[in-house]
Amino acid sequence: MKSTKSAGLRLLREGGLYTFGQLLLRGGNFLLIPLYLDLLDPADYGAFGVVKNLVNLLVPLAIFGQTHSLLRLGVDVERDEDKRHKLLSTVVTWVLATSGILIAGAALAWPLLHDWIDGVPLWPLGAAGLAIVAGQALFNVVLAWLQSDGRAEVHTLLNGGRWFVLAAGIFLFMFVLDLRAEGILLAMAVSFAVAGAVGLWLVMDGRGLGADRSTLRATLAYGLPFLPHTIGMILFTVTDQILLAAHESEGLASAGVYLLATQLASAVYVLAMGLQKAWVPFFLREDRDREGQGWERVRLLSFFVVSMVAIAAVGVSLLAPELVLLAGLFSDNDWSAAAQVVPILVLGIFVRSYYLVAIAVVMANKRIARWIAVLTLSAAFMNIVLNLLWIPRWGTYGAAWATTVSWGAVTLGTALLSRLARKVPFKLVHALVLLGLVPAALWLGVGRSLPMRAAVMVGFLVVLAMLDGKDLRAALRTLRSR
């Protein structure tokens, strides 16, 4: 049986690589934000966000839950090369076909979407956004396969390479061709298409594409219940910005400020997703082999995952004013209101880290996994209702709190489903204490002077070390020694 220490090292290594790739990408994107804010006013930036949210809704429809199938079924067939190829080629063929259908359908239905997207025209902004769909869907499928395969290095390099293509596209479309919001969208479309094609060439190993009927039935049977779940997840990210843009007293300018806040808060989400990309295949393999080794590694490492996200959440929240200042360094517009929204959004992301741990447990049980869609869509409906009630009263604050409260609901529901799927002995008491420590640190530090915020951060780290210092130090010592 592999030791907890070696399992922790692998999880840290793979999670670190995934996070590093995402941080490179998000860090590079952060460097581009001052450029965006200099060239675009809040209304233009808000329009870009509205179109990007539409793209974010179409991409999961194109994927149709197939990335979840790759992660789950990929573990089942990892020892059979022919079945692995059938699985991958079938999913890729499906995704490319559905992407083309959705792009054409969205273009034809654009006049019907006029009010929903706050009057953004199909040409050129909408067309530039639709150009992203196929490339991003393919890119996500390739990344899911690399994640299932444990090829964290290639995953990271592919993410980094996509950013360099994106940066080159920004220079071409915005500076050479003098485009604005549509230039950003076109650069994104090119970067996803190039990275997706390169990634596909790497994972297919010279084999051609094709759809195997029995494999397609299996992937759809598992992935289809996750489609409503994925749409529900997307509704969480698009509802607040779309309703802010549609609100007469707030409008696109407010949506632009809110978009900046979400991008800054996403630094915490990058870490959470990087760790989760390593966590899901790790847990699925632990579940498969649990009769021989038990749950000890899962128990220890699950709390380590949420602890790392907690540290990032407190740090980003306390530094929000400085991050906003850096983002708007070259802009003549006032973006300072974003700093007050960042901690609320970050709190929601921290709560989501518990969901990211629990969802792997749910995915392990194919019968229970089908219920996740009901839970997610219910929470997404709650998010819509809360946004409708709170945005007219509190604007961006109401939107942020609606998202955070809804994430709390979906996390609680997923935790209950995970208990039905598997009786995993998580560190529940530690997890509940940490769930109270993070908002307490934000309450003490947000809005205070920089020395006070630094003191709160140090105090939080000390309390966390007292809570679970032995296991955390052991994991860090293992990482240092290697």
Describe the structure in your own words.
This protein has one domain. It is 84% helix and 0% strand. It contains 20 helices and no strands. The C terminus is likely disordered.
Overall domain count: 1
Percentage of residues in helical conformation: over 70%
Low-confidence stretches: 478-482
* Biggest sheet descriptor: none
What's a concise summary of this model?
The protein has 482 residues and is mainly alpha-helical.
Describe the secondary structure blueprint for this structure.
Layout: H1 4-39, H2 42-63, H3 66-76, H4 81-108, H5 122-130, H6 133-149, H7 152-176, H8 181-204, H9 213-223, H10 226-246, H11 251-288, H12 290-293, H13 296-318, H14 320-327, H15 338-364, H16 366-369, H17 372-394, H18 396-421, H19 428-445, H20 450-481
Helix pairs in contact: 1-7, 1-11, 1-13, 1-20, 2-4, 2-5, 2-6, 2-8, 2-10, 2-11, 3-4, 3-6, 3-9, 4-6, 4-9, 5-8, 6-7, 6-8, 7-8, 10-11, 10-17, 10-18, 11-13, 11-15, 13-15, 13-19, 13-20, 14-15, 15-18, 15-19, 17-18, 19-20
Core attributes:
20 helices; disordered C terminus; single chain; mainly alpha; 482 residues
